[in-house]
Description:
Helix 3 (35-44) crosses helix 14. The chain has helices at 2-13, 19-27, 35-44, 47-50, 54-73, 76-81, 84-103, 107-124, 131-145, 153-169, 177-194, 196-203, 210-234, 238-259, 273-286, and strands at 205-207, 265-267. The N and C termini lie far apart (52 Å). It has a two-stranded antiparallel sheet with strand order 1-2. Helices cover 74% and strands 2% of the residues. It is mostly helical.
Amino acid sequence: QRERVREDFLRVLGERPYAGVQIALAVGDQRAIPQEQWEVFRRTGVNHLVAISGLHVSLVALVAGIVCGGLWRRVPAFSLRLAALRMAALAGLIAATAYAMLAGLGIPVQRALLMLAAAALALHAGREPGPGRILAFALGAVLVVDPWAVLAAGFWLSFAAVGVILHLLAGRHGVGRSQGWRIALKIQLALQFALVPALLLLFHAFSLVSLPANLVAIPLVSYVVTPLVLLGVVLPVDSLLVLAHACLGAMMAWLEWLAGFEHAVWQQAAPPAWLVLAGAAAVGLLLLPRGTPGR
C-alpha cells in the first residue's frame, strides 16, 4: 500500500522539486527528498515537520473525530446507544491507527497513537486522567514495544517536546482565539530554549532561525499541506497534490532565505555532562510560573 501511494504521487507530481516531501508526509518514505533540501531543513530546525510526527497523527484523529461526531449527533437512535463524544474518540483513534500504520509507526507516531489510545480508553471508562499520566503511559508502552528506542535521539526529543508543551498548557481551559496565537508563540519560544541542551548533547548544534522558520512552517504544513496530501491519498484528484506542492514552494522560499544566513546554525563541540545537566536545570527554572522564588 505504501509503495502504491508513492508511485501515484510520483506519477502526478513528476519532476516537481518537493514531491519527496509530500511522499514523506503521506507514508513516511523520505528517500525522494534531495540532500540539499535536508540541509535547508537542518539549518532552519524544521526536520520534525518532514517526518510524520505526533502533530500529524493528532490532526488526523481530530478531523476524523469532528466529522464522525457531527454526523453521529444527527441520528438520535445512534446517540441514544453511544454518546457522540465517545464515538468521535473511537473514530479518531481508528483513523489515527490507520494513518500510523501507513506511516510506518516511527517513535513519534507511536507516542502520539498511544497517547490518543489512553485518552480514548479513559473517556470510554468515564475517567479523566491528567496529561502527565497519559504521557507516562505512552512512554512506558513505547519502551515495552521497543526497549531499544532509548538509543534513538528522536525518542528523547519527542517526549521532551511533548512534556514541555503539556507543562505550558497545564491548567488552561477555554482558550479564546485571541489568546491562541500568543500561547502558540509562547510554546514555540519555550521549545526553542528547552531543547537546546539536548540538541547540543546529541547533535552538537542547533538552529538560531528555527523560531521564525517554525512559526511559518508549522501552521502551513499542519493545517494546509498535510490535509491536502492526505486527501490526495484517499481521493484520486490530482489538483490536491499540485496545490499542496505550490504551498510547499512558498514555504521553501522562506526557509531557503533563512538558511542562507551565515550564522543560521550554532555549532560547537559536545558539552560535558555536568554542563548539559546545568543547562537542563536552567531551562526548568525558566519554565516555572512567574513569581517562583529564584526564577
